[in-house]
Design goal:
Layout: H1 19-25, H2 27-30, H3 35-48, H4 52-79, H5 81-89, H6 94-101, H7 109-114, H8 139-162, H9 167-192, E1 212-214, E2 234-236, H10 258-270, H11 282-285, H12 295-298
Parallel strand pairs: 1-2
C-alpha cells in the first residue's frame, strides 16, 4: 500500500521559468535512465524477490525513486510555469510567444502538447516505455543491471547540472545525483552478500572456454590489459583457432528424415539460382548516369 506525503523529499527552488531547460529535465522524468524507469524496475523486481532482505531493499528504493520522480517533475513544472500561463491566457503577440517557446534554439512542442506539465517523454519527446525495464528475474543479473542503471542516471544528472546556473535547481539535482551513488552502494552490497554471485545463474560455464580471450579484431590498435592477459587468460590470436573451436568442421547441419528431407530438397530445387543466367532486369531498362556496367550495355 502506498501513501503520499504532500511534502517533497527535497525542496524545489527554481529562480525563474526556463522552458528550454524544462525540456532537458524531461530526460530524468520519462527517459530510459529516468526516475520512473528506475521505480518500475525495482518495484517489479521486489514483487518477484524471494529473499526478504533484498525484497525490502528493492521496495524501499523503488518508493524513493517515485519521490525522485515527483522532485524532477516539480522542477519541470516550475520551469514551465511562465509559458503555461502565457499560452493559456494568450497574453502575448504571436511573434513574442513564438520567440519565448523557442528560446535557446529548442523546439518546445511539449509546451503545446502538454501545456507545460511534465510529460512521460524524454528530452527528445520519445514516450516512456516499459522496454526501459530490463529485469530478467535473477538477482545476480538484476543487481548488476541496477548498479549500471544508477551509474548511467548519475552521469545524466551531472550533465543536467552542467547546463544550468540556477542554484536551486543545481542543489536539487545534486541531491538526486547523490542518491544514485547511494543506491549503487546498496545494490553492490546486496550483490556481494550472495556467495557465489558469478557467473549468474545455476549452470557453470564450460571449462574449455571460460578462460579464453579471442583476439578477433587484429591490426593497429591491438592492446593488452587485465581484460585479456595474465594468469586468468589464454589469448587466442591464430585465426584458424578462432573458428570451429569445438573441434568440428564449423558448419551448420540438421538431421532430416523421410518426408521432411524430401520437402526441403524439393524447395531447394524449385528456388535454385542459375549461375549461367544473366537476364536483363528493371535496373538495366531504367539505366541512367552513374549506374555502372549493366547487362543491357554489354548486349
Amino acid at each position: 500500500m502506498f501513501m503520499h506525503n504532500k511534502r517533497l523529499m527535497y525542496t524545489v527552488r527554481v529562480s525563474e521559468p526556463n522552458p528550454a531547460l524544462a525540456t532537458l529535465m524531461l530526460e530524468q522524468f520519462g527517459g530510459p535512465q529516468g526516475e520512473l524507469a528506475a521505480a518500475m524496475r525495482y518495484f517489479t523486481q521486489a514483487l518477484g524477490e524471494e529473499d526478504a532482505g533484498r525484497k525490502d531493499m528493492l521496495l524501499d528504493i523503488a518508493t524513493e525513486e517515485l519521490s525522485h520522480l515527483e522532485v524532477i517533475g516539480s522542477i519541470v513544472s516550475m520551469l514551465n510555469r511562465g509559458i503555461k500561463g502565457r499560452l493559456s491566457e494568450a497574453v502575448e503577440e504571436e511573434a513574442d510567444l513564438y520567440m519565448s517557446l523557442n528560446d535557446g534554439g529548442e523546439s518546445h512542442t511539449t509546451s503545446i502538447l502538454y501545456g507545460g506539465a511534465p510529460a512521460l517523454v524524454n528530452s527528445a519527446g520519445v514516450p516512456w516505455t516499459a522496454a526501459y525495464v530490463d529485469s530478467i528475474g535473477d538477482p545476480a543479473c538484476d543487481l548488476r543491471s541496477n548498479i549500471a542503471a544508477e551509474a548511467r542516471a548519475k552521469i545524466v544528472y551531472e550533465r543536467l547540472i552542467n547546463v544550468t546556473d540556477d542554484p536551486g535547481i543545481k542543489d536539487a539535482l545534486t541531491f538526486l545525483m547523490t542518491r544514485e551513488v547511494a543506491h549503487q552502494k546498496s545494490f553492490e552490497k546486496a550483490l556481494y552478500s550472495m556467495q557465489p554471485n558469478f557467473p549468474p545463474g545455476k549452470l557453470p560455464g564450460h571449462p574449455d572456454f571460460a578462460d579464453k580471450y579471442y583476439n578477433m579484431s587484429q591490426g593497429e590498435g591491438d592492446a593488452q590489459g587485465p581484460w585479456n592477459q595474465g594468469e586468468q587468460w589464454e589469448t587466442v590470436d591464430d585465426r584458424d583457432a578462432q573458428a570451429a573451436v569445438d573441434g568440428g568442421d564449423g558448419g551448420a547441419s540438421v538431421n532430416l528424415t523421410g518426408k521432411a528431407a524430401s520437402t526441403v530438397q524439393a524447395m531447394a530445387e524449385r528456388l535454385a539460382s542459375d549461375p549461367e543466367s544473366d537476364p536483363i532486369t528493371g535496373a538495366d531498362l531504367g539505366v541512367g548516369p552513374g549506374a555502372g556496367t549493366t547487362t543491357q550495355a554489354r548486349t
